[in-house]
Specification:
It is built from six helices and 13 strands. With 287 residues, the chain is α/β, with parallel strands linked by helices. It has two domains: 70 residues; 214 residues, Ribosomal Protein S5, domain 2 (2-Layer Sandwich), CATH 3.30.230. The longest helix is centred in the N-terminal third of the chain and has 66 residues.
Length: 287
């Protein structure tokens, strides 16, 4: 066999080997993608199972209490509040926030101070620690022994969604608990965002502008935000043209949220900073 034949054979062998390697790499990526999908599905199933188990345990608890005839488990009061959270969306310019409007109903039942969380439809949101803090703050503000009640928090949304900032519902849940304890209802055109701290102060959150837009779209007249967060950043697309190319990039610009919303046609909304639950309550019931 001459040199040319050997080179041709070697080249052919290398081409086949390269194709086999490419096929193996492609198959590996596909398998990795399937593993990732299965892992995500398993995570969602585990979350759903945890929620279902918590709900089942609660209803078993109520059933045992009612059967015992001691008055525990009886619904005493409830209150509903509007909550605005955010989810992350991907675009050609990268990740960004999108506002998500949820309703949270708090039921007070005769109990022993237990906290339960129910979501419908499936909403990826962690509220357990926020609810416990909200219960303690609410009880202290209205001077009520919170261990006399069980607190059932229902999170209701228009669709399934993975929310990325569950603690930002702390302020809203605190107000809902106080309203239920006092036999009141919160106004339906009031929306809010903010974490709740053990001393009753309001902590900062992310995605405030996205939340404000979602609240305005749903008819909000008053939107409560943490201190220092009535302004936010918008990202605007800029273009620069050269001889051969057009370059697009994002530029940040700080805006006053209320003015920004009015510029978008939402003329009735008022955005107000609140630093404490006390201040929020005064604004809500005055609106």
């Amino acid at each position: 066999m001459d040199t040319r034949s050997i080179l041709a054979l070697s080249l052919g062998f290398n081409v086949v080997l390269a194709l086999l390697i490419a096929m193996a790499v492609t198959e590996n990526y596909m398998l990795a993608g399937k593993v990732s999908d299965l892992t995500n599905e398993l995570k969602l199933l585990k979350e759903s199972l945890n929620i279902t188990q918590a709900q089942l345990e609660y209803y078993r608890s109520i059933s045992r209490q009612i059967e015992a005839g001691d008055g525990l488990g009886v619904l005493l009061a409830s209150s509903t509040v509007n909550v605005v959270a955010v989810r992350i969306v991907e675009s050609s310019y990268g990740a960004s926030y999108e506002g998500v409007v949820l309703k949270i109903r708090v039921d007070l039942r005769a109990g022993r101070g237990d906290v339960y969380v129910n979501t419908n439809p499936r909403i990826g949101i962690d509220l357990q620690s926020s609810v416990r803090t909200a219960v303690d703050v609410a009880g202290r503000l209205v001077n009520v022994n919170v261990s006399r009640y069980d607190y059932v928090v229902y999170v209701m949304g228009e669709r399934e969604v993975d929310v990325v900032d569950g603690p930002s519902a702390g302020l809203a849940i605190t107000l809902a608990i106080i309203s239920a304890l006092e036999g009141k209802q919160l106004p339906s055109d009031v929306y809010m965002t903010g974490t709740i701290n053990p001393d009753g102060s309001i902590g900062q959150v992310g995605g405030v502008l996205a939340k404000a837009l979602a609240a305005a779209e749903h008819g909000a007249k008053l939107f409560l935000v943490p201190p220092g967060q009535s302004k936010d950043i918008v990202w605007e697309v800029r273009e620069e043209r050269t001889f051969m190319f057009t370059v697009r990039y994002l530029v940040p610009r700080q805006v006053d949220i209320e003015s920004y919303l009015k510029g978008r046609g939402y003329s009735d909304i008022k955005v107000v900073e609140v630093s404490s639950v006390d201040q929020a309550l005064k604004l809500v019931y005055r609106s």
